[in-house]
Amino acid sequence: MSDELFELPEGWEWVKLSDILVILSGEAFKKKDYSSSGIRLLQIANVSFGKVIWDQQNFLPEDFLAKYPELVLEKNDIVMALNRPILNDLLKIARLQKEDAPAILYQRVARFNLFLDEMRDFFFSYTSSPEFIQLIRNNLQGSDQPYINTSTLPSLPIPIAPLNEQKRIVAKIEELRDRHQAAKQALEEVPKLCDRFRQSVLAAAFRGDLTADWREENPDVEPASVLLARIRSDRYSLWFDELAAKGKNCSKVKYSEPIEPDISGVNNLPEGTSKNCFRSVLN
């Protein structure tokens, strides 16, 4: 046992994995054994983070269930990838669901057979903890394809709480996980809500809704029609200066306002706002 184990609460104990379970690795079945249908072969690719995935499937004949009864996986069995077991600080360990079974265990995948089934939930929860993942990382071998041996796993330490406390710990973890999932789903809606809020604010702003109170308190503010007249005056001055810079006689060139855009859909503007102002800005 490691000298760096943290102190446990009263009534808890540090034990080795071999004290609470037996570890079994699968068989290296040959390609010639495979069939087009039958019993699914659970391989490393099928072991994901907390669950089994079947994106990649290989099958063995039905009669392999009787030939290899010790390798038959059932609901609630816990399996772990032995090759490259850690990815992005997550451990590739899974618990089979009803729809995953039966399956047959392939080589380099370990199954944890607990002596006391009532400890299964506690053990499986612990395998996702930072402490256990770090323990696996510390015992990996190889560099390009890191792996852990079934001969190493049995000596790894695990903290054991009294059985009744184990059940309470698992229940609390499940409660917090549900709350986390609910919070995650709520956060996923935030960008959509923010976008709708932004659009609503912009729509209200350019209807004059956001400054309605300000207009009531400032009735003598220069109306948009005066602003439009100033814009037209400035536009004429620019036109005049451009012709003069080109050496043209302004008296012989007819000045005309730009073609007005279609703003038939602009309605119900606040008092003091001019559609002509909209035309001027759009031009």
The oligomerization state is single chain
CATH class of the largest domain: Alpha Beta
Number of helices: 8
Q: Write down the overall geometry.
A: elongated
Report the structural category: alpha+beta
The major beta sheet can be summarized as:
4 strands, antiparallel
Count of domain modules = 2
CATH topology of the largest domain: Adenine-n6-DNA-methyltransferase TaqI, Chain A, domain 2
The helix content, as a percent range, equals 25-40%
DSSP E strands, number: 12
CATH superfamily of the largest domain: DNA methylase specificity domains
User: First CA to last CA: what distance?
Assistant: 80 Å
Instruction: Spell the H/E element sequence.
Output: EHEEEHEEEEEEEHHEHHHH
Parts with pLDDT < 50 across at least 5 consecutive residues: 274-283
Description of the structure:
With 283 residues, this protein is α+β, with helices and mostly antiparallel strands. The protein folds into two domains: 13-179, Adenine-n6-DNA-methyltransferase TaqI, Chain A, domain 2 (Alpha-Beta Complex), CATH 3.90.220; 215-282, no CATH class. It has eight helices and twelve strands. The strands form four sheets. A four-stranded antiparallel β-sheet has the order 2-11-6-9. A four-stranded mixed β-sheet has the order 4-3-10-5, with no helix packed on it. It has a two-stranded antiparallel sheet with strand order 1-12.
Task: Summarize the entry for a quick read.
36% of the residues lie in helices and 14% in strands. It has 283 residues and is an alpha+beta fold.
